């Protein structure tokens, strides 16, 4: 499992064994069962997480209707947290729960900053990942604003074919901003 994490970092910043060991020593392993919460609205969010195994979803719930709006899935080799709460040290405004039994590596804000200050390679990795995260978010927003439901569904299928069999259709529909019935018609 640690190899997945090392490969993830080394795709951007090659490391020696000692460097990787030092980075890994700042992370803690968290194992959660299916349906368990990683983050709940109102929580203090003390860590950001790298998914080693499993699948989690991030969502917000509309207060009046109780309807969930899913805006992120994370599977192996992906990152997830409530970024606003993590970086601003404010209570979580989203929920993150497990769709499968999951194993994650978590790092605190302080340890993240410590590693970035001590290791230019790690700081470079964080900067590149952050930039690509913003690019992905921009593309997702553009898709939600400009694309039809059919186009959003086709993009999801082409971009994440490995998720289709792992995620319930109702959750895919929520992620795409459509009803389950609409998703059925799109297929």
How would you describe the overall organization of this protein?
The structure is a single chain. The strands form two sheets. The protein has a four-stranded antiparallel beta sheet. The N and C termini lie far apart (35 Å). Helix 4 crosses helix 5. It is an alpha+beta fold. Helix content is 46%, strand content 23%. The protein has a domain of 107 residues: Jelly Rolls. The chain is built from eight helices and eight strands. Strand 4 and strand 5 form a beta hairpin. The mean pLDDT is 95.
Total helices: the number is 8
Helix and strand element order: HHEEEEEEHEEHHHHH
Q: State Rg.
A: 17 Å
Remind me, CATH topology of the domain at 2-108? Jelly Rolls
Q: What is the CATH superfamily of the domain at 2-108?
A: Jelly Rolls
Low-pLDDT regions = none
Strand order of the largest sheet: 1-8-3-6
CATH class of the domain at 2-108: Mainly Beta
Strand coverage percent? 15-25%
State the CATH architecture of the domain at 2-108: Sandwich
Q: What keyword list fits this structure?
A:
four-stranded antiparallel β-sheet; alpha+beta; 8 helices; single chain; Jelly Rolls; globular; 46% helix; 187 residues
Structure summary:
This protein is an alpha+beta fold.
List the helices and strands and how they pair.
Layout: H1 2-10, H2 17-24, E1 28-32, E2 37-39, E3 47-53, E4 55-61, E5 68-75, E6 79-80, H3 83-88, E7 95-98, E8 102-108, H4 109-118, H5 120-146, H6 149-159, H7 169-176, H8 180-186
Antiparallel strand pairs: 1-8, 2-7, 3-6, 3-8, 4-5, 4-7
Helix pairs in contact: 4-5
